[in-house]
């Protein structure tokens, strides 16, 4: 009897963690096939965890509030890049430069987040496709601003960043002036692994803030919306307002996340640094076992860890297994898209079956 | 004036009115800039013929109730695969072109059937899932293009001898075969008569299909599923028929596109293609629920002439950077976004 019970609970564990377990297996195979040494992998992981996790955490609140995966964090990333471009123009380097970038980015992120929220409130039930299209659309506007307004409406005369014609930003901006501004504040070498402690502390701080936020009255409202928006509305919660707050928080966090990300990378690809941010962050979250309706901090951490391990090893594994690094690279973008597709299908299928069962009962 | 504006926007919808106005402004600018007008008209006609059938692929999916086909890249991939096989078979000219089309049909039909089964289980979320199914299959096929056992030296990489190239030139195969068919000159510029006729024939066939028993049943299933089911129509089956048809037309569409363009674009080439077709039919006045052949024709003409004319006009105003591409992005996604906010209101 007891054994039976143990067996089912073990099954349950497997079922609940099937996605991260599956990816753990893929990662282990990848690590083995890549023939990379442990120190290299650990170094890469510590760097990638510190620079990408912030962005992944930015996704959690909209999921809790029932708005699904926020593909529009791309817009937050654009706000972050606006902050960085401003810092570059004023030529403020080092840690002060980083802080100024965050400071400049925040008002834009607040504005963009609010706008995104307004549009998503008009498209309830279709938030994900809308946020995805909104991201693409905003990318067009972003390009318009930096290609045509820079040097004309916005008077910037700096040949280092402006195209030779005097109008438009260059494709790549050198961010050496704030590279590693946070990472290298305190970066001890632990057995060959250089850990960017301060960046990781920032991420940890965000984890605690989210944990705290979810327990407040606002957090309860988020969860109420996530469970059933109609019931939340009836019980007197201003649903539209709560949704606006959720998406604005997400956008601001994404902006900061992008600043953290680029202070590590050190170059801003003006017109496409932000493009795939949403996809990679969302795939990472889902790999950790999150879904369209449920996401936790630990899922974000586990997911980022696994997804980026895969990123590190797959070109090498592809080269060793198939004699072609390109295959590994295609494989990881397939994994990123595929995990999102499967997760969306499972969610929609469940929703459809629930609706059908309810119909049958009636 | 205000009443006139309102009656116009009510009748044609904001996207169509705005895009028409934008197109008019561009035309005036083209005249002012002393652009080669016959050349611009030719470019527009070429682009209309090139993309028309891809836009037509939206008709069965919208009318069968699965909405805008964001997963059209699945059909596109099938078409490209068939095109590559026709080159591998060492065919030339019209024979290669029609063999590619015939070969693409079973691929697209099979993929469409499987995709239709999936869509029947995720009703209400077809758009998001279609987008990501398209993305994942396109990226899976990236591995496929590298590993598929094609041998023809004009398709595989010269160095290494394995894997298909990112762009496959069709100049010696079937590039421009229908563009040149029955082509005649207007104001010194050739008209792609054959391709336009093909597009026209596609529209007529689709119009006839929608009048047949299957077509009517499909429209009924899309229009009001409950009512259709009460009348003995198998709604899920009609949705599958619509999806299959959409994929088949998409597969044919990309072959026609490649014929005119002169290249097949493999790997990530098909990734964003569905959005262009979607945007075009929305500009034509379609919604996510209803679309007619006239929406296809007017949307294709408006959207693709806009792209053809904006390219030289905008580049002359701003030679540096890629502003016409930016305009394309803003128009494409702006129109889709507008349509999505309308869907939200309908529900």
Description:
The complex is a heterodimer of chains A (362) and B (347). By secondary structure, chain A is an all-alpha fold. Chain A has one domain. Chain A is 73% helix and 3% strand. In chain A, a hairpin with a 2-residue loop joins strand 2 and strand 3. The two termini of chain A are 38 Å apart. The mean pLDDT of chain A is 88. Chain B has a single domain (13-30, 37-325, 334-346), classed as Orthogonal Bundle (ABC transporter involved in vitamin B12 uptake, BtuC), CATH 1.10.3470. In chain B, the strands form two sheets. In chain B, strands 1-4 form a two-stranded antiparallel sheet. Chain B has a two-stranded antiparallel sheet with strand order 2-3. In chain B, helix 6 runs antiparallel to helix 12 and helix 9 packs across helix 10. Chains A and B meet through helix 7 and helix 14 of A and helix 7 and helix 15 of B.
What's the topology here?
The complex is a heterodimer of chains A (362) and B (347).
Chain A: H1 2-16, H2 18-34, H3 38-57, H4 60-64, H5 73-90, H6 94-122, H7 127-149, E1 172-174, E2 189-190, E3 193-194, H8 197-215, H9 217-227, H10 229-234, H11 239-265, E4 267-269, H12 277-287, H13 297-322, H14 325-361
Antiparallel strand pairs in A: 1-4, 2-3
Chain B: H1 2-12, H2 14-32, H3 37-56, H4 58-63, H5 73-88, H6 93-121, H7 126-147, E1 167-169, H8 177-180, E2 185-186, E3 189-190, H9 193-211, H10 213-223, H11 225-230, H12 235-261, E4 263-265, H13 273-283, H14 293-317, H15 323-346
Antiparallel strand pairs in B: 1-4, 2-3
